[in-house]
Input
Amino acid sequence: MKSQFAEDTSAWPLRCNKWEPVQIISGDVRQELKEIPENTFHTCITSPPYWGMRDYGHERQIGAEETLPEYVANLVSCFREVRRVLRNDGTFWLNIGNTYTSGGRAWRDKDAKNKGRAMSYRPDTPEGLKPKDLIGVAWMVAMALQSDGWYLRSDIIWHKPNCQPESVKDRVTVSHEYLFMFSKNENYYFDQEAIKEYTADGKGRKNKRTVWAINTEPCKEAHFAVFPRALVRPCILAGSPPGGHILDPFFGSGTVGVVAIETGRNCVGVEAKPEYIEIAKNRINGVTPSLFTSYP
Output
């Protein structure tokens, strides 16, 4: 099958006057986004590294900041650039989960169920919090983005029926994350019809609700669960027209690019880790493009 991603990752689509189905940019998102012209993308869909949850082995990695305010500030700064490169009618869908304080532990070992959880560092308990506290970082980021100028339009609960088991004995097991929907302006593109759900009797349709039950998807190459396609698909369908331009500044294993191809859109992804770029390329080259939309 012909490659569906751009081999030359140094050229932006508008520089070479041609959109590839998927273009992967290798580099630090904080630098690469500054090179993109404003008003380029219809929507952005992404899931950034969570604070203190995984060591990606990359220098200056977001998520490995010593303090929680640094993490929030880094994401606000990054997504400020996302707002600049979105069209005026653009939307931004942010998947992020809450975390707990480390309880004083300075490292974390891998385990058989999650080999990617091993970490050589753990951040200190944030000022004002206690060991074992639920930090609420997802809402901290959402409110900081709202204060920075984004319109916070929806807080969607991603319910994970196949959530990872936890051995905790003094609280319930976490089985959800958040998907926040933001817009650049008060009025924006949103295709309600594209994501409507069937009613219980199957005879009618209703607006999509704010709780989405979607299983996680494993990725054997990377030893961790990836952004599930079923979570990305409604965001793309609602946030962009056929043939639209999608951005994922934390591309990872490339799920947003995969769904973009499947739905007849194109995508630019930014990823700092070469190993993940190779995983993304392999996944993207196994996708059958939409039969209903041609790429410009």
User: Anything to note?
Assistant: The CA atoms of residues 108 and 261 lie 37 Å apart. The two ends are 20 Å apart (CA to CA). The longest strand covers residues 86-96.
